[in-house]
């Protein structure tokens, strides 16, 4: 039932068309505390109509409202506070959750529309560091939220596998590397060569010229350079996929920059045909004055292409291949201006999906306040962080539950889940300073706290034994359960909002609210008491277990049944 519609009708029944149904509905508020009711209508909007003080209007309207379908309706100052019938409400909510299970909150708003998501995008021959965590887990969670809202996401790991950095790497490998070391430990040795190049070129700037010449050979298809590039790409992907497997993240395509290298001419030709390319100091640019943006540089004066040239080719390919409802780019906030330019250029080109191109920016992740940088050698390897988190989770599980039979598996789910949740609980545009120990706490606003709350619910259900939820009475009379029941009711709205805002933190914060409400209920209520409310209480516990598990799933976090 739409309880806001019910309250709207109750208010309209005592008015004489002073406000429309839509006006009343939109003005309804959720009080700050449950003690003030479940929904409230502010009488300020009627002050000019009735020429009375709002608190007097509220009191007079309450006296006329039919309260038979509510627990009570009362005037508090200028507000009319509605207290819903808890038994009816809880019965409806718990029935919905238990009947729908993991599908609770599913909707078809997206109508099956394709949504390519440009995410993760590490650079070949460099390690996946903590700096890559955010794009990966934010993109993965958004994809799951899109599915819940009826879309068809296409996760595209747009690899950084082309560009002058490969000239630098090939030069570095030839000067200081060897095949045996790369085979033994590919990524760590390749990045060591790359860092050494940048250390050496400060004293020997001629190295940059050598790197540019080497990359030119690669572009021209020189056999040796192409062989090394393919080798570096292969060993890099093998390393990346081990980390993605730990994170539980998969992709639908790995088309990187190299894939689009021979597809740029079409975009350039469209720009020429539309008269959009103009010369500026020998370079070719698109004027974006009408968007209040600087000109977009498309081709350098020597004819060389840039990121935007390849991204135009990528957009054309995705548009033609997927006919997308939206195009999402999960890329750091520092690229916001660039994506404004890219979207403007695509709009000028008349690309059908350009209007629904969305840059999904996110803040920096720092460690002890320092920005991470491969070039300077200041790298925190994501693989090592995940292993450390798993080890720390294992220690805590050993201390809390030494007899747990599948400790290794649970430690992995808790450790990795803690890293993912620790990122996603923050609004994505916020910067994060990472502290491993804070993420692994079993109390507070952490992933393990939500996981433990789910495990607690499962433990109660296990102790209860076989339960016939279908025939159980679900009309809860216990006031201490009300906060949990109302939180369960919110879940479908949170799913819609998180999708609209591309904001996984809304799901994470919701899961924390539900977990806290449930744990508060658990602390103040004896659940496994054999009385006429036992079925209702266990229905609540089961509903909490279902929704917490699905909330964590939408974040890409596992929900162990025992911890």
TrEMBL record:
Reactions mediated catalytically: tRNA(Arg) + L-arginine + ATP = L-arginyl-tRNA(Arg) + AMP + diphosphate
Placement of sequence motif 'HIGH' region: 122-132
Ranges annotated as spanning the membrane: none
Localization of this protein: Cytoplasm
Residue span(s) of domain DALR anticodon binding: 450-563
Keywords recorded for this protein, A-Z: Aminoacyl-tRNA synthetase, ATP-binding, Cytoplasm, Ligase, Nucleotide-binding, Protein biosynthesis
Gene3D superfamilies: Arginyl tRNA synthetase N-terminal domain, HUPs, Isoleucyl-tRNA Synthetase, Domain 1
GO molecular function: ligase activity
Enzyme Commission number(s): 6.1.1.19
Family matches, as InterPro entries: Arg-tRNA-ligase, Arg-tRNA-synth_N, Arg-tRNA-synth_N_sf, ArgRS_core, DALR_anticod-bd, Rossmann-like_a/b/a_fold, tRNAsynth_Ia_anticodon-bd
Enzyme class: ligase
Major localization listed first in the record, in broad terms: cytoplasm
Residue span(s) of domain Arginyl tRNA synthetase N-terminal: 5-84
Family to which the UniProt record says this protein belongs: Belongs to the class-I aminoacyl-tRNA synthetase family.
Record's subunit section: Monomer.
HAMAP family per record: Arg_tRNA_synth
Full protein name: Arginine--tRNA ligase
Source species: Lentilactobacillus fungorum
Gene name tied to this protein: argS
């Amino acid at each position: 039932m739409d309880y806001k519609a019910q309250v709207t009708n109750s208010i309209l029944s005592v008015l004489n068309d002073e406000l429309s149904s839509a006006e009343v509905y939109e003005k309804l508020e959720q009080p700050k505390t449950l003690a003030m009711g479940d929904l409230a209508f502010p009488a300020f909007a009627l002050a000019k109509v009735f020429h009375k003080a709002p608190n007097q209007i509220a009191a007079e309207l309450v006296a006329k409202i039919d309260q038979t379908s509510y627990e009570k309706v009362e005037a508090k100052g200028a507000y009319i506070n509605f207290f819903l019938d808890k038994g009816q409400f809880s019965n409806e909510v718990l029935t919905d959750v238990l009947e729908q299970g993991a599908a609770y909150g599913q909707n078809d708003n997206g109508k099956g529309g394709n949504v390519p998501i440009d995410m993760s995008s590490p650079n070949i021959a460099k390690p996946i560091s903590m700096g890559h965590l955010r794009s990966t887990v934010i993109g993965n969670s958004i994809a799951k939220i899109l599915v819940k809202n009826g879309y068809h996401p296409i996760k595209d790991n747009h690899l950084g596998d082309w560009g002058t950095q490969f000239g630098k790497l090939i030069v570095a490998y030839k000067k200081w590397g060897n095949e045996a070391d790369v085979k033994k430990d590919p990524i760590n040795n390749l990045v060591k060569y790359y860092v050494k190049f940048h250390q050496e070129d400060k004293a020997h700037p001629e190295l940059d010229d050598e790197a540019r010449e080497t990359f030119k050979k690669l572009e021209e298809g020189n056999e040796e350079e192409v062989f090394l590039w393919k080798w570096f790409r292969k060993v890099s992907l093998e390393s990346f996929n081990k980390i993605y497997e730990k994170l539980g993240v998969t992709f639908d395509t790995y088309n990187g920059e190299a894939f689009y290298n021979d597809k740029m001419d079409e975009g350039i030709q469209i720009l020429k045909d539309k008269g959009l390319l103009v010369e500026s100091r020998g370079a070719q640019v698109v004027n974006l004055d009408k968007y209040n943006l600087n000109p977009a540089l498309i081709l350098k004066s020597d004819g060389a292409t840039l990121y935007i040239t390849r991204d135009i080719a990528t957009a054309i390919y995705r548009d033609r291949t997927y006919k997308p409802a939206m195009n999402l780019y999960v890329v750091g906030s520092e690229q916001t201006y660039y994506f404004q330019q890219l979207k403007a250029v695509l709009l000028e080109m008349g690309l059908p999906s350009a209007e629904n191109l969305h840059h999904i920016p996110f803040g920096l992740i720092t460690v002890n306040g320092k920005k991470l940088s491969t070039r300077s050698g200041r790298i925190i390897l994501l693989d090592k962080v995940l292993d450390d988190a798993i080890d720390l989770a294992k220690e805590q599980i050993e201390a809390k539950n030494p007899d747990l039979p599948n400790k290794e598996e649970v430690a992995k789910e808790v450790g990795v889940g803690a890293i993912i949740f620790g990122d996603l609980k923050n609004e994505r545009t916020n910067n994060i300073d990472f502290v491993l120990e804070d993420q692994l706490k079993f109390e507070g606003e952490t992933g393990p706290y939500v996981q433990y709350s789910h495990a607690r619910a499962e433990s109660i259900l296990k102790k209860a034994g076989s339960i016939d939820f279908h025939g159980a009475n679900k009309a809860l009379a216990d006031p201490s359960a009300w906060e949990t029941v109302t939180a369960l009711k919110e879940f479908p709205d949170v799913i819609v909002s998180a999708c609209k805002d591309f904001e996984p933190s809304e799901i994470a914060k919701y899961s924390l609210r539900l977990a806290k409400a449930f744990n508060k209920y658990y602390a103040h209520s004896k659940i496994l008491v054999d009385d006429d409310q036992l079925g209702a209480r266990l229905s609540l516990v089961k509903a909490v277990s279902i929704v917490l598990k699905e909330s964590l799933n939408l974040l890409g976090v596992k929900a162990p049944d025992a911890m």
